[in-house]
Design a protein that fits this description.
Length: 572
């Protein structure tokens, strides 16, 4: 490098690539949704209810068989005279789930503490400690996390072999036992009893599968639990994984939706297998007897057309001896938010599903600090501002050193230009003379960029937190910014191409970058200076569809930087 400004330029451009690459690459257009019947959003059970309620109804659509679980495809038409499926509705304080007698599986799931659209608007009271009232806000719609059409596969399917999906289309007999829902089916000489157990105040669902061999000779099976979801219900999010997540051999394995067509598999001790979408997930975890040796299992994913699935099976067949006792397999099923506070209580290393990549070790403490501050200020936007101020104060000595070094380099720029002109035909001598000049005046050409490099991991970690954390989903700030996880738009129906509304916060951020650029000492030639002046425009376009929480952080960071630069320049 010829001077520190070139290094600074390289650092800035590297940061642009890191945080802006996915923004520059447009997401593929969403596929048309598969027709489905939306679940009703019934009110929550009355206060003081200690058990989930179960209701049943018959569905006019006959049960249909699906194809193999390893590679699901469009199911065949329902056979004539098939038994209509029977639906069982589970009501708890947290969700409303509908199970079907077809496959004894989950058909729909509606979360009652999350909504399809932001609940707070301009006229709402933003600093209220009270959560949204489900009855008063029902017109905006609870979040339908799952709504599987009758023509496709359901979820929490149990198979006797990953290559045999016949039980998914079979008609199971279902009935209620207190807070449990029991399904029974026959497969040759085997009788399978699936028992779901529900808790009124938890997203945890217990699943116990008992297989009884009613024949006269031992039979071998490979117990397999499959979760299914439709990819056309997944909202695009550039900051979080959508697809398969599994914790195998003590490590998190992630496969994006686009990679599921390769049918990825992992074998070893499996803590959980999950289908993840932005902010939410469905997961299944094996429950082994205390003190028992942890068996090797297989975690796998797959996709066919609009259906993606995650499977959990034993790595080796299990023998079922004849007799009434049979063999029991236990699982923990989770459908709910990707919230660290909730997932930590679930166990099975489920909290590992909230992953911020390389910067996880920095990002999670910052998320904890963000939640801590929000508990006092009651507004995530204000919490972001406070965190930004704290980070800026921590790095103030490094920032001051960086500005001071650039100022010293600026003073030497005329002499550096003369040396370059004098030794333009001898590059080696040119570099030697420039380095001697720096040494004479005790100037470190790296002094302006090294402090910035130290701060970049913190910036990117906070960037990941603000882009992927469920805490910011539908979290209001003030005025028109009622969702810190979405781009800010004032009057969102102005018809502006690619943007729609007016991105006020983003434009303010671009203006603050322009002011910062003008105040920053320049040490290069006029061409480099002009290139650096383009950075505010580039960043404005990059940030135009970023979540408003990210833009707020960058805007506040720029404003604080302007104040710091003003103080340094005034002192100088």
């Amino acid at each position: 490098m010829k001077d520190s400004h070139r290094i600074i330029l390289a650092v800035v451009l590297s940061l642009v690539v890191l945080v802006g690459w996915q923004m520059m690459m447009p997401a593929p257009p969403p596929k048309p949704k598969t027709p489905a019947t939306k679940a009703d959003t019934a009110a929550a059970p009355p206060a003081g209810s200690v058990r989930p309620t179960v209701t049943t109804q018959s569905q006019g659509q006959p049960a249909t068989a699906t194809t193999t679980a390893q590679k699901p495809s469009a199911p065949a038409a329902p056979p004539a005279g098939a038994v209509p499926e029977k639906l069982f509705t589970i009501e708890t304080e947290l969700y409303r789930a509908t199970f079907s007698s077809r496959g004894g599986a989950l058909k729909t799931l509606v979360l009652k503490h999350y909504y399809a659209k932001p609940q707070k608007q301009w006229s709402d009271y933003y600093f209220s400690r009270e959560p949204p009232d489900p009855k008063a806000q029902a017109y905006r719609g609870f979040l339908t996390l799952m709504d599987m059409p009758a023509s496709g596969p359901y979820s929490i399917i149990f198979n006797l072999n990953p290559r045999d999906n016949s039980l998914a289309g079979a008609t199971w007999k279902g009935h209620r036992q207190g807070d449990k829902l029991v399904f029974t089916a026959k497969a040759g000489a085997l009788r399978i009893i699936k028992t779901f157990t529900f808790l009124n105040d938890s997203y945890r669902i217990g699943l116990k599968v008992r297989i009884v061999n009613e024949g006269t000779s031992p039979l071998s099976v490979v117990p397999d639990v499959v979760l299914s979801a439709y990819t056309n219900t997944v909202d695009t999010n550039r900051y979080a994984t959508s697809g398969l997540q599994a914790y195998v051999n003590g490590k998190l394995v992630e496969e994006d939706i686009s990679d599921l067509e390769k049918n990825p598999t992992s074998i070893g001790p499996v803590d959980f297998v999950a289908l993840a979408i932005p902010y939410f997930m469905g997961a299944v975890a094996p429950v082994d007897p205390p003190g028992a040796a942890i068996p090797r299992r297989q975690a796998r994913g797959g996709k066919d057309k609009d259906v993606m699935f995650a499977g959990l099976s034993t790595a080796k067949p299990v023998n079922i001896a004849p007799g009434p006792e049979g063999v029991v397999f236990k699982y923990m099923v989770y459908y709910g938010p990707k919230d660290l506070a909730v997932l930590d209580k679930m166990g099975h290393n489920l909290a590992a599903a909230v992953d911020f990549g390389w910067f996880d070790i920095i990002a999670k403490p910052m998320l904890a600090a963000l939640n801590f501050l929000q508990g006092y200020v009651l507004n995530y936007g204000v919490a972001i501002i406070i965190i930004t101020i704290i980070v800026k104060l921590i790095f103030w000595p490094l920032t001051r050193k960086s500005y001071k070094s650039m100022k010293e380099m600026q003073k030497l720029t005329p002499q550096v230009q003369k040396l370059r002109e004098r030794y333009k035909d001898d590059k080696q001598r040119q570099q030697q003379e420039i380095m001697q000049l720096y040494k004479t005046y005790k100037v470190n050409p790296m002094g302006g960029c090294l402090p910035m490099l130290v701060q970049i991991p913190v910036f990117i970690a906070f960037y990941k937190v603000l882009g992927a954390s469920i805490e910011l989903r539908h979290a209001p700030f003030m005025l028109w910014i009622n969702d810190l996880s979405a781009p800010d738009r004032l009057f969102p129906d102005l018809g502006i191409p690619w943007v729609g509304g007016l991105p006020v916060l983003t434009l303010l951020m671009g203006a603050s970058m322009l002011i910062t650029q003008k105040m920053t000492p320049t040490t290069g030639d006029s061409t480099q200076a002009k290139m650096m002046m383009l950075m505010p425009i580039i960043f404005t376009f990059l940030f135009i569809n970023f979540p408003s929480g990210l833009v707020l952080y960058w805007l506040v960071n720029n404003i604080l930087g302007i104040g710091q630069q003003y103080a340094i320049n005034r002192k100088a």
